[in-house]
Amino acid sequence: MDVVFLIMVLALIFLYYLIFHRSHRNYRHEKNQKTAVRIYLKLKTFETKGQQINYLKQINPYVFEELILYSLEKRGLKVIRNKRYSGDGGIDGRFYYNDTLFYVQAKRYKKHINKKHVVEFENIVSTNKVKGIFCHTGVTGKGSKEEFSKSSRVSFYSGSKLVNLLFSEDVILM
User: Fold this and answer.
1) What is the pTM of this model?
2) Rounded to an integer, what distance in angstroms lies between the CA atom of residue 76 and that of residue 29?
């Protein structure tokens, strides 16, 4: 009798943990998505693209991911979000454009971008034989520019090109 009771209590604790953990994770995603929409609307009020980029450099990196995905959804694209932010295998989201699968990598940098991130994303995209977009707010150094120029599967969005991706519906993805 005591063993059965103990097993039932442990099972209830385990179920409670699963439910709470899932709902907490969903809450964080929902909160970041709502914040991304607010930031999207705020960015539209700035007068210059430079102001928009400077503001983007200050936001939460997960909100930046959600902002990119939200802007793709606004275009009517089918976006597939990851279930978690970290440990995502280097892919922040996926979407279909003209029946082609694209991977998304969103990096909110304040300074220079990390060439290693560019190389890793290019490898993931090439291995999976898909296309990709690498969106970032940082400064593109010489090494990263060389990687950008080598890539045939990845389009890179930073500066005014990133702002155009966010707000201009006529931006054509590779």
Assistant:
1) 0.81
2) 20
